[in-house]
């Protein structure tokens, strides 16, 4: 499909048929998708992500709030260029990005489903974050819901906060939990863990870190 026709699908069949809302600044965007041709494949703090059957190797990330953040994410992708740990920016519009699709399961969902997370996945993500630092970015808000693994390798799917300053400890804390709890107690005989429990740990961690900042 020519890129111009793909843009027409976004502008005419996707954007008019979706509504993005939020109930809390700390929870993901809520997606209401009324389109028959576009599939919702995820949502994050700023945007919903969609794919079209005609071009399964691409995704469209539509911002639901703070379009200034979209401009910053465009700049982040331009700095990252082409690297195996990240998606690639193909084009963009006033409220959306078109990105190369990264296959895989998030580390959060892998824990819920009882799928082993190899050490190499953690090492791949570490190397990807080090590359981001080498091009002048600051990996920020990296956690188990925005990194994925596919065929035993790790990838970073959300770079929207890499322009921020300061130290974000989420990835370092996740690695500590991986090394001290996951590897010795869960990895070998990895049982499925109920979603409500894993999500409760996630929310409890975020609340704990916010309280520490006060």
From TrEMBL:
Q: Which InterPro entries match?
A: Kinase-like_dom_sf (IPR011009), Meiotic_Drive_Suppr_Kinase (IPR052396)
KW Kinase (keyword) present: yes
Keyword annotations: Kinase, Serine/threonine-protein kinase, Transferase
Record's keyword annotation contains Kinase: yes
Q: Name one GO molecular function term.
A: protein serine/threonine kinase activity
For this protein, the record's PANTHER family field holds:
SERINE/THREONINE-PROTEIN KINASE YRZF-RELATED, SERINE_THREONINE-PROTEIN KINASE YRZF-RELATED
Q: What is this protein's record name?
A: Serine/threonine protein kinase
């Amino acid at each position: 499909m020519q890129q111009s026709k793909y843009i027409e699908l976004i502008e005419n069949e996707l954007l008019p048929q979706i509504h993005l809302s939020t109930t809390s600044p700390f929870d993901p965007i809520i997606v209401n998708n009324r389109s028959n041709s576009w599939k919702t494949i995820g949502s994050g703090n700023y945007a919903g992500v969609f794919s079209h059957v005609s071009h399964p190797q691409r995704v469209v990330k539509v911002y639901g709030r703070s379009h200034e953040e979209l401009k910053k994410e465009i700049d982040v992708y331009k700095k990252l260029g082409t690297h195996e740990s990240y998606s690639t920016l193909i084009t963009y519009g006033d409220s959306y990005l078109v990105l190369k699709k990264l296959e895989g399961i998030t580390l959060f969902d892998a824990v819920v489903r009882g799928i082993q997370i190899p050490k190499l996945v953690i090492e791949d993500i570490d190397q990807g974050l080090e590359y981001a630092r080498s091009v002048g970015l600051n990996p920020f808000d990296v956690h188990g819901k925005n990194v994925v693994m596919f065929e035993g390798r790790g990838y970073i799917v959300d770079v929207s906060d890499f322009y921020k300053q300061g130290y974000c400890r989420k990835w370092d804390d996740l690695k500590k939990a991986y090394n001290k709890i996951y590897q010795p107690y869960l990895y070998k005989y990895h049982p499925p863990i109920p979603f409500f429990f894993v999500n409760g740990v996630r929310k409890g961690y975020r609340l704990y870190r916010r309280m520490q900042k006060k």
